[in-house]
Amino acid sequence: MEAPVAPGPERLFDSHRFPSDGFLLLALLLYAPVGLCLLVLRLFIGVHVFLVSCALPDSQLRRFIVRVMCSVLGLFVRQNDPRLRDGSVRVYIANHVTHFDHNVISLLTSCNTPALNGAPGFICWSRGFLELGAAGSRAELVDSLRVYSSHEGNAPLLLFPEEAATNGRAGLLRFSSWPFSIMDLVQPVALQVQRPLITVSVADSSWIAELLWTFFVPFTVYQVRYYLPPSLIWLSLLEGCVFRGSPHVASVSFTASSLAARPRVPSRVAGAGPSAAEDVRVTAMAQRVKEVLPHVPLEVISTDLAQTNCVDTTIANLLEGRVSFFPESKEATTDLPAPSTSQPATKHFAKSSVERHLSLQERKRALYDYARRRFAEKQAAARAGGSP
């Protein structure tokens, strides 16, 4: 069976909450009075669920009680063979569908999800996120999570390598690699979410709005599927084989950061017209630049490409300092040669401003030539790999 074709970003997100089918829309209108009554009733019940979850210590009894109470809220959680869950694993990874994926999985097994966005505080804690303090960089975050996971008394981590919620039907965002650098052994968890009448989640919708719609609909079913972890997880195997359980699901080359770099991605995707095609083209060009300059943030690359519309021009802008940025990591720049390797070492500071300018231009040109050679080599390797 042929691998599914990678979908464009317009298929990964739902931009409309209400159904387009006339019959379903009529059913939703007839159900609306009942849904409003359920919403008000479940708001009061939800407060009790929150208080119970805060009062009881983390245990199987607590998870059972809260899970039963959540069924009254219309949240039903089903899992396949729980014996596939490895109790020795310290890191779970899952695809991301809704704002409450971590809450749902915590009803089945003890786990914590670190807060990656937003300031720590009561809201962060009440939503069930683990507060690790403000991390200055992704490397510091990984180090903190490694220290956390090294303590046997702490609950396992639950991470979402997609870093953004999609509809989970057509494909997966390209996984970020940092969750796999915490532990060598991780357990993948696949999520499927279904509900009647309206879509599961809408792009750019807040977690409060999604919570209210969850209380409004009759029910929402979360299907959780575990997989036995191998001795060492490879990212490509994980994306291509484990989560792609359906022949209609494929992994794509887009990352959450590349989509976020474009202005108002969901609203542009909603049209699925020329603007969506343009987004795909810019994203593809940004990935090419990223291969040449891995230390440059993808957001910076995409922003400059939107203005230059040229890979070579963007590379030149980044190398020559016309676009300012903070490198993503120091390790990413270690493979770049010193620009002055092809030039005589400067023994002294030039007295003439003209000489200093020429020296700077020579160093820039050396680095630019290297980047162009690296880009050409990658393109030649890609063409060689694609040839029969």
From TrEMBL:
It comes from the Eukaryota. GO terms for cellular component: endoplasmic reticulum membrane; lipid droplet. InterPro entries: AUP1_CUE, CUE. The chain crosses the membrane at residues 23-52. SUPFAM superfamilies: Glycerol-3-phosphate (1)-acyltransferase. Residues 281-323 form the CUE domain. Pfam families: CUE. It is a peripheral membrane protein. SMART domains: CUE. GO terms for molecular function: ubiquitin binding. Gene3D superfamilies: DNA helicase RuvA subunit, C-terminal domain (1.10.8.10). PROSITE patterns: CUE. Keywords: Endoplasmic reticulum, Lipid droplet, Membrane, Transmembrane, Transmembrane helix. Belongs to the AUP1 family. This is Lipid droplet-regulating VLDL assembly factor AUP1.
